[in-house]
Every structure is written in structure tokens, then in C-alpha cells.
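Lab manual, section 2.4: Encoding a predicted structure.

Procedure: take the sequence of the chain (175 residues), apply the prediction step described in section 2.3, and record the output as C-alpha cells. A sample record is shown.
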Amino acid sequence: MKKVFLAIIACAMLFLTACEKHDGIDYFKSKCIAELNGQKYIDQTPFTINPNVIITPELNYSEKELTFMTLLRSERNGEIALTVRINLYCEDSGELLKNEQTIEKIDFQASDGGNYEWEYIKYCRDNKISYARVNDEIVNNGTFKITSYNVEKRQYTGSFTLQFSEGTLKGDFEI
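Recorded output:
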């Protein structure tokens, strides 16, 4: 009985430190706030105890590869307006956490009749070339920077700037 009580207290403490409340709804602390053409966007997942929930923003890091995804809405719990995916590669171990990363769309010719976006992404992955997408559009250029991190605790803060057909999307995140 004592172990159950301690487990409940531990879960309650985890809940209180891993969430924040807005408009009476609890949200995970991980969030991304971005702006495009004067419009503000946010990604912050409502707190739920469900093994199938996808918590975004999401960052996965290994020493030579980093992926970032955020689902931006014009208001919390609104419809997804912008899906941002960033894939970064490097040769030097740890460089992705220490230095600002540059993203530049490369010249690429899709096979005749092929799907340009799919072929471009496959080419970039196969050749370890950094790229980003907003919705399904390949970003022309941009930057991504981790400003602070704790790899063991999987805590990261940072920013990104992505230029694509609709303008320049600037965002800050905390995971």
C-alpha cells in the first residue's frame, strides 16, 4: 500500500512539473511558437494519458543526425496550419548541438514523370544532405540552432528560420 501511495505522489509531481495550464486545459511543457507574415502559430499538445498520442514538437537526436517536427496551429487546439519537418546531417560528432545549421535547397532533377518532392527527400537522405519541408513544400533555405540542451534528459531549446513560397517562418521551441 505504501508503494502505491508513493507511486501516486511521484506521478502527481511528474504531472505538475511536466505540464502547464492555459484556459483551463493542461498542456505538455514542450512547445513551439512561430510567426509567418505577421501571423502567430503555436504547437503545444494537450496533456493526456494515452500511449498512442503524438507529442509535438518532437526532436530526435543522434550524433550525426537530427530530426525536428512541429505541427503549428493559429490557436491552441485549432486545426493544423503548418507542418514543419527538418532533417539535419553532419560529419562531425556533436556538431548539430553546438553550431547553427544551414539548410539550402540543392539543384535536383527528378526522373521524368517522377514525384519531385519524394525523389528529392530520398536523394537528400541517401546522401546525408540537410533539408526541410513546410507542409509538403521543400524549403528554399533556412537555419536551425539548438541554444541549450541536456541530452540525458532529452531537453532542448532552439530556433529556426525557414524561407519558402509563403514567406519566412521564424520559430522558437522548447522540448
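Check your result against the sample. The first strand starts at residue 19 and ends at 22.
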